[in-house]
Each structure stands twice: as C-alpha cells, then as structure tokens.
C-alpha cells in the first residue's frame, strides 16, 4: 500500500492552527430505524489532515457527507466554519460553498467540458466573471497537471485524470475544507498514485482535509490524525504513528491485520 | 517436441507488434445479402415471403398510380380522361383534386385575399426557430434561413401581399441572416416576440391585443421583484397570479382603449375560418412550444420532496393521461364556457390549444421524469456539494442531461400530438384529414373522391413528422459527448 507514496513529504507548511474548522458534538443519524452514526464527537482544526478508516458499512462516508449536508443528521450539532448546519437553506449553501467534496465516482458533469466543469460553480455561485473563473480554473488544472485536457469532455479522460479534474473543480471554489470520499477506490492501481500525489500536494499547502480512504500509506504519510470507525461510532483516534504501530482497541488491531496483512 | 512443452518454455517478447489492418471481408453486396437476407432457411423463407407481399402490393396499385391525372376540373372529367387514355375499364388516381383544392387544404376557409398573412407567419417562424433549433451549425442555419426567405417571399409575391408587408418580411429575413452570422443568440428576442406577432398575423385585428397580452409577463416580473423582498413564496404566487388577473380582467379593455387612441389594426379573421394545415400547424406548434416547459415543470413537481406539490402533479398527470383527448376536446368546446365569467368570449382554437397542450404535457412529464430518473444520484450530489441551489442545479446540470436522454421520447410525444390535431374535427374545426376532405367532397365536382385526398394529407403529415424525427436524430448526434 505505502509504495504508492514515493515522494518525500514536505511538512513545513502543514501547520495546524488553533482555529476550529469543524466541530461535531453528540451527533446521531438514522436511516429509517437503522442507527448509522452513534454519538459522534469530533473537532477538526484548520490545517488538520484527518484520515477516516474502517470496514465498509461503518458509517465513515455518511459522517463526512453530513459535514456538507448531503446527509441530514437527526440529533446533535455540526458547526462548520462557525456556521451551524440546520435545515436553514442559507446556512447549508454557505457551508457548501466553503467545503469542497471529491467523490468515489468523480461525479463530473459529462455534458460540460473539463474547463466548464471547473468554472460552473464559481460563475453561478460565487458570481465570478467568466474570464477570471477560467483563469482560476486553468491555474488549478495546471496544479493537478492536466491543463492540456481543458477542452475535452470527462468521458474522454482516464479515471485518474477524471478524479484530478474533480479535485480541481472543488478547488476552484477556493474552499477552506476538503472532503474526500474514497477518492481512489474506483481507480485502476496504475492511476491511484497520480491522485494521491495531488492530494499530498494539497496537504503540503495546508488545506484542511478529511479523507475516507483505504490507502494506509497515504494516512501514514500525511495525516496528523487517523480515526477508526466501526458500527457507526468512532472506535479509536490517534496520530498515525501510534495508530499503526500501537493500536489500542482489539477491533482496530483486527482491521489493521486484515488490510495490512498481505 | 510436444505442444505442451512449447507452451511451458519461458517466453519474452523482443519486439512489440505494430497494429495490422483487419482481414479483408468477402465482397460487399453478396456478403450483405448473405448476412441480412439469406442467413438461414427461416430467414430465406421470410425474405421470399416479404418479396411476394411487396410484389403483390405494387402489382395491385401500380396501374392505379401509373394512370394519374393531374389536370382536370372535376372527378367525372378525370375519369373520362383515364378512359380516353388507357381504355375502357381502367382505373387511375385523380390527383387533380389536390392541384385544384391545394389552397383549401392549406388554408381552410381563410379569406383568399389574406393568404399571404399565414404564409408570412410560417416563413418568419423559421427565423424564430433558427436560434433555438439550429444554434450550433452555421451552415444549416444559413440554408434554413435562405430557403425560408426565398420560398416565403416568392409565395408572398404570388399571393399578392401588400408591398409594405413584402418589404417588412424581406427586411426581417435579411436582418436575421446578417445577425445570425455574427451572433445567433440575438435572434432569441425575435423568437420571444414571435408568438405574439404570429397570433396577430394569423387572426388579425388590433396589434394592441398582443401588446397588452405581452404586458402580462412584464407585470408578473414586476410583481416578482416587488414581492421578492418579503418572501420568495409570495413572489412566486404573485408572478403567476398577477399576469392571470391582468389577462382575464384588464387586458381586453386596455387593448380596446389603446386601439381607440391609436389604431394598429389589420383585417380580422375569425377562428372558424381557419382550417387545413394552417389549423393543424397552428395548434401543433403552439402545443409543442407550450407542452415542453409545462411538462418539465410537471416532471420536476412529481419528483419534488414537497408533499402537496408532488400530489398535485401526480393527480394532474394521472387524470389527464387517463382521459381520451377527444373527451378533453369536448370539454374545451362545450363545458369550458360554464367556468368562465359570463360574457367572456374565449376563442375555440385557444381552448383547443390549451387542451392539447395539457394533454401532451402530461405525457411529456412522464417522458422527462424517465430522463431525470436515469441520471446517476452522483450528479445531484455533485451539484449540491458545489453549492448550486435547486433551480441552478436543475437548469445547469440536471435538465440538460435529462432532456438529452429524453429526446426520442419527447419527439415521439410531439409527433403523436401533431397527428392528434386532426381530432379537432370533432369539435367543429376544419382539420385537414377529415373535415377538409369532406368539404372538398361536398362540392358536386369532387363528390365520391376518397383515396386521393387521404393519401395527400397523409403524405404531408408524414413529411412533417419524418422531418421532426430526423431532426431529433441530428440533435442526439450533436449532443453526443462520450467517445467523441
């Protein structure tokens, strides 16, 4: 797993500030009668990089989807960047424009070119003039190293390229927080590295990140906290060194032995 | 060495193979026949059976069709010519009826001195459609605009249009062609005005009527802006209610007063003079233009999270789809007046257009709902995650994709609705198929002629519907985004 990370990580910019980016207290969520998230408490500081791991069905995707209200929580409190998520649409839109999200299946807009994918939200949500939005989009496309694909359609790109466009699309909104929902799970092994490299670069620039991922190499390299979830609750959280070398809970040990065992 | 041994020896490829051309196929036509018509005993038998049926039909109708007469004043004259030319007992088609009654099939009982008006409206329709239907290809747009210009202007000249209207049409065509070269988007203004101008050209009367009708949406917009400060729901209601109240209670008087102050009238033509393809195209086009937006709104409403909106949409769609169109047309012609304030004279064609629109919109809504359902959930989530609100997400992300998926179904609904316009014969309007051919047969000259008018009208319908179908295929190809 960790061979995907080949670059030397520059941790100089990766400072964690005291400013709280996300604070979740006593949050609970049900799908019908199924209790998916149970009593979640989590505080994320600006500049922190958190990796959320856990077996499938443990609620890790649901947790980060609650942070930009793609899922609604039924009890407890989620405050993102000082704005509490309630059913108030104004607050939701405010949070969503500050929080970028990258999905497992990219979810690019197939009817728009790569450039249009990147400029759409800035133009229509942030009201940025088209020229300026295009300049910003090209800047971020260069950053994810595919400026030459700007006028192609997503269907013409490889999976890895599509995911990098999706990252660029989120960055164009200049978010303060980035959520990654298993960004490499749908990719061929050969393409995982290019996406992880892009994410590492982001981390180096001090972006606040929450990643649901099975890439434990990535977790070891860039995370400053790893959260292990099972059955809808946070079972263990620790810095990556202690998490991988000295896990406390039996459940964590079992999980790690299963995914790192071969 | 055994085969097995050869396969177990380690192998390393030294040079990569370059791509090679595919093997040459068997010769084209023979191969095509073999694979498509005679691939097996059943297929061969079916092919022969098919050929026999075709031969039987052609054999049966060929004589009739070959003995066509295009120049005659009446059916009996036609028959005489056939007998003179091909001998006693021979039969033949008498297309002379089409030639003689062409105008009637086209315009119904529209005053013949004013034929140029619907002609001009129909020609300028293509100017209105150019930015909507042919926005992508400059070449196609040029061909459409120039063909429409040449045909319309020559038809107007033949039909004796007044000089100033002839110049007007020519100026619009030339202006539109020039503007379309630079920025076809600007023609959209004409597209928006066209419904009002078209109504004026077709029905005549005072221009103040359409102008006052146009004031409705403007008032709606003003109401939306004013009420929007208080609450978005109130603004939405005001946006719909204010124009309705204006149209029902004030627009008529306002138009009359304005006409008295400054007359902008051309000779009026009553709705019962409309007929033939003029009527079909008027109803069909209005229905197409109105049912698509209404269908979109209904489809979105049916997928809405709001219980009341959703229930109303479901009830509306299911009710309309469950009732025959003829029943709705009867409601339009007989019952609707009961619900109107006394003294309002609600035009019969307008009533029929409303019913046809509502009927097509219910089908349209289901077609579009299919397109919406086909979109992956991720598209909605991505739009949400980027902070787009509901309407922006629908307009920019969801509908462009859903409508593209739905194109075949949408066009099918259009085609079905256009053909259904012939049903207006049941409420006393002169549709081209039944009423017009009856009207033609009512004269002693053409009494007893059945096949020719039906075939002619059917052919025209086929041409229009086939055109729509081809356009939809062109559109699908144009919007193809994958693997391009």
Automatic annotation (TrEMBL), chain A:
ABC transporter domain location: 22-256
Name of the protein in question: Amino acid ABC transporter ATP-binding protein
MF annotations from Gene Ontology: ABC-type amino acid transporter activity; ATP binding; ATP hydrolysis activity
Domain of life of the organism encoding this protein: Bacteria
CDD domains: ABC_HisP_GlnQ
Family, as annotated: Belongs to the ABC transporter superfamily.
Keyword ATP-binding tagged: yes
Record's keyword annotation contains Ribonucleoprotein: no
Keyword entries, A-Z: ATP-binding, Nucleotide-binding, Transport
InterPro entries registered for this protein in UniProt: AAA+_ATPase, ABC_ATPase_HisP-typ, ABC_transporter-like_ATP-bd, ABC_transporter-like_CS, MetN_ABC_transporter-like, P-loop_NTPase
UniProtKB/TrEMBL annotation, chain B:
Pfam families according to UniProt: BPD_transp_1
Record's GO cellular component terms: ATP-binding cassette (ABC) transporter complex
GO biological process: amino acid transport
Annotated GO MF terms: transmembrane transporter activity
Location in the cell: Cell inner membrane; Cell membrane
Residue ranges constituting the ABC transmembrane type-1 domain according to the UniProt record: 277-472
Listed InterPro entries: AA_ABC_transptr_permease_3TM (IPR010065), ArtM/GltK/GlnP/TcyL/YhdX-like (IPR043429), MetI-like (IPR000515), MetI-like_sf (IPR035906)
Protein's membrane topology: Multi-pass membrane protein
Residues annotated as transmembrane: 41-62, 114-134, 143-159, 165-180, 187-203, 209-227, 234-254, 274-300, 312-336, 348-368, 405-430, 450-471
Organism domain of life: Bacteria
Chief subcellular location: membrane
Presence of the UniProt keyword Transmembrane helix in the record: yes
Record's keyword terms, sorted: Cell membrane, Membrane, Transmembrane, Transmembrane helix, Transport
Range of residues in the leader sequence: none
Family: Belongs to the binding-protein-dependent transport system permease family. HisMQ subfamily.
Cited PANTHER family: INNER MEMBRANE AMINO-ACID ABC TRANSPORTER PERMEASE PROTEIN YHDY, MEMBRANE COMPONENT OF AMINO ACID ABC TRANSPORTER
Protein name (Swiss-Prot/TrEMBL): ABC transporter permease subunit
């Amino acid at each position: 797993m960790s061979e995907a990370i080949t670059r030397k990580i520059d941790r100089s910019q990766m400072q964690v500030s005291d400013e709280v980016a996300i604070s979740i207290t006593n949050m609970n969520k049900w799908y019908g009668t199924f209790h998916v998230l149970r009593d979640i408490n989590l505080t994320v500081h600006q500049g922190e990089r958190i990796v959320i791991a856990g077996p499938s069905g443990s609620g890790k995707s649901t947790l980060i989807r609650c942070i930009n209200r793609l899922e609604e929580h039924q009890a407890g409190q989620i405050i993102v960047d000082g704005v509490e998520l309630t059913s108030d649409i104004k607050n939701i839109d405010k949070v969503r424009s500050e929080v970028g999200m990258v999905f497992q299946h990219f979810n690019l807009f197939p009817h728009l070119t790569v450039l249009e994918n990147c400029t759409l939200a800035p133009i229509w949500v942030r009201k940025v003039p088209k020229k300026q939005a295009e300049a910003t989009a090209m800047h971020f496309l260069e950053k994810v190293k595919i400026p030459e694909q700007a006028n192609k359609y997503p269907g013409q790109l490889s999976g890895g390229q599509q995911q990098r466009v999706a990252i660029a699309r989120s960055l164009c909104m200049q978010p303060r927080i980035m959520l990654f929902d298993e960004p490499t799970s749908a990719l061929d092994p050969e393409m995982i590295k290019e996406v992880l490299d892009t994410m590492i670069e982001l981390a180096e620039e001090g972006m606040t990140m929450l990643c649901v991922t099975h890439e434990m190499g990535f977790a070891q390299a860039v995370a400053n906290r790893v959260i292990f979830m099972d059955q809808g609750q946070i079972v263990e959280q620790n810095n990556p060194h202690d998490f991988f070398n000295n896990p406390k809970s039996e459940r964590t040990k079992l999980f790690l032995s299963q995914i790192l065992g071969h | 060495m055994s085969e097995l041994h050869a396969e177990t020896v380690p192998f390393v490829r030294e040079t990569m193979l370059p791509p090679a051309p595919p093997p040459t196929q068997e010769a084209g036509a023979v191969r095509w026949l073999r694979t498509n018509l005679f691939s097996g005993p059943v297929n061969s038998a079916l092919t022969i059976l098919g050929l026999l049926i075709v031969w039987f039909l052609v054999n049966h109708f060929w004589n009739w069709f070959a003995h066509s007469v295009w120049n005659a004043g009446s059916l009996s004259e036609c028959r005489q010519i056939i007998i003179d030319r091909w001998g006693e007992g021979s039969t033949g088609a008498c297309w002379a009826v089409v030639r003689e009654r062409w105008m009637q099939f086209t315009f119904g009982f529209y005053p013949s001195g004013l034929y140029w008006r619907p002609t001009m409206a129909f020609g300028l329709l293509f100017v209105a459609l150019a930015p909507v239907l042919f926005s992508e290809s400059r070449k196609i747009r040029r061909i459409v605009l120039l063909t429409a210009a040449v045909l319309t202007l020559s038809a107007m000249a033949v039909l004796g249009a007044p000089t100033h209207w002839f110049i007007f049409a020519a100026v619009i065509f030339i202006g539109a062609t020039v503007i379309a070269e630079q920025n076809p988007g600007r023609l959209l203004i004409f597209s928006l005005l066209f419904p009002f101008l078209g109504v004026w050209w077709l029905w005549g009367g005072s221009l103040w009527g359409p102008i006052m009708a146009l004031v409705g949406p403007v008032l709606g917009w003003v109401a939306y802006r004013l009420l929007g400060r208080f609450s978005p729901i109130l603004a939405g209601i005001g946006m719909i209610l204010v124009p309705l109240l204006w149209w029902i209670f004030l627009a008529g008087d306002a138009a009359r007063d304005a006409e008295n102050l400054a007359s902008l009238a051309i000779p009026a033509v009553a709705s019962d003079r409309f007929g033939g393809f003029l009527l079909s195209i008027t109803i069909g086009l209005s229905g197409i233009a109105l049912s698509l937006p209404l269908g979109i709104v209904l489809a979105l409403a049916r997928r809405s999270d709001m219980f009341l909106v959703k229930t109303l949409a479901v009830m509306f769609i299911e009710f309309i789809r469950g009732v025959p169109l003829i029943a709705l047309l009867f409601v339009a012609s007989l019952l609707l007046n009961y619900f109107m304030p006394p003294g309002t004279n609600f035009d019969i064609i307008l009533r029929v257009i409303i019913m046809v629109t509502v009927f097509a919109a219910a089908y349209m809504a289901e077609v579009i709902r299919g397109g919406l359902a086909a979109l992956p959930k991720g598209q909605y989530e991505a739009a949400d995650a980027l902070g787009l609100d509901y309407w922006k997400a629908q307009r920019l992300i969801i509908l462009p994709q859903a409508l593209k998926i739905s194109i075949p179904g949408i066009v099918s609904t259009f085609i079905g609705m256009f053909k259904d316009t012939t049903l207006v014969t049941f409420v006393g309007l002169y549709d081209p198929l039944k009423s017009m051919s009856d009207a033609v047969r009512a004269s002693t000259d053409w009494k007893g002629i059945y096949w020719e008018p039906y075939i002619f009208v059917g052919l025209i319908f086929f041409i229009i519907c086939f055109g729509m179908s081809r356009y939809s295929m062109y559109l699908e190809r144009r919007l193809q985004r994958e693997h391009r």
